[in-house]
Amino acid sequence: MKPGLIIGSFLSIIFIGLAFFSFIWIPYDIEALEISNKLKKPNFNHWLGTDHFGRDIFSMIMMGARTSIAVALLAVGIGVVIGVPLGLFSAARRGSFIDEVIMRGNDLIFAFPSLVIAILITAVFGPSAVNAIVAIGIFNIPVFARLTRAAALPLWERDFILSARVCGKSEARISIEHILPNITNLMIVQGTIQFSLGILAEASLSYIGLGAQPPTASWGRMLADAQTLVSIAPHVALVPGLAILLMVLGLNLMGDGLRDLFDPRIKGDRT
After folding, report:
1. Phi and psi based region of residue 168 (left: phi greater than 0; alpha: psi -120 to 50; beta: remaining)
2. Cα angle, residue 113 at apex, residues 110 and 115 outer, rounded to 5°
3. CA distance 98 to 106
């Protein structure tokens, strides 16, 4: 097993574990303000120190992990649930007018980054974690649609697909029973990568005030609140910044490791 996969999995499991554990226990209530205890450096009672409101930073990191993972996971889910069927359908109807419409629609969405989509959605419905999920999810749809189509197209020329068509199977049935199982590994790898990008996108949206709103904890908003305190209490900005860095790094390493593990061509080239 590749070292990158091991390290990436270890980092990812740590933060996912913190997110799940936050449902059971957190050291301090993040909604309880204790101004007299503000900007404390890491100590025995507060392992990562406190912020400008006297809140425990470790507790906020735990709750922020829950928010980031939930937003990214749901956003990737939207991309998979809508994008993969679109890609399969487009590949099955390759060269047709419907295929062209789907691909040009994907190009149109790609022209608007998730941040721009979030601004448009927020202007109408207001800033929230739900709107961040929708914005990031919409951006993920063409990613999975294009990847699915590109991976499925060569398979339609393979002998086992031709045999299935001779047997009278419909395009939809062939896509589900034969095409999809052969590209699942690729979708898992891409899902891991989009998950990491979702974490980063959620932090970015929260940083500019378009993501999760108070009192919901968010790594991006923790950074935004700490940007004027770097010279006074650098740990307030350093901790959430490192959390974002390590989480995204872990997921990217894991995605790269899974790609090497699932792709026999890469595996053969590196042995």
Report:
1. left
2. 160
3. 12
pTM for the model stands at: 0.90
- Is residue 29 included in any domain, yes or no? no
DSSP 41: P
Which ranges in 93-218 belong to alpha helices (H)? 97-110, 114-125, 129-152, 159-166, 171-174, 180-207
Tell me which residue range forms the domain holding 101: 67-235
For residue 50, the SS3 value is strand
- Return d(Cα 24, Cα 5) in angstroms, integer: 29
Residue 71 counted as domain residue: yes
Q: Is residue 40 part of a domain?
A: no
Tell me whether residue 163 is in a domain.
Answer: yes
Place of tokens 């697909």: 161
d(CA 3, CA 261): 12
Residue 74 and residue 80: Cα distance in Å, rounded?
10
> Cβ distance 83 to 140 under 8 Å?
yes
Q: What is the CATH number of the domain that holds 95?
A: 1.10.3720.10
d(CA 58, CA 89): 46
User: Are the C-beta atoms of residues 64 and 219 closer than 8 Å to each other?
Assistant: yes
CA distance 203 to 114: 12
Question: In which element (H, E) is residue 21 found?
Answer: helix 3-21
- Per-residue pLDDT of 25-42, as tens digits, reads 999 999 888 888 899 999
pLDDT, tens digit (0-9, with 9 covering 90-100), for 206-241 = 998 888 888 889 999 999 999 888 889 999 999 999
| Tally of domains in the chain | 1
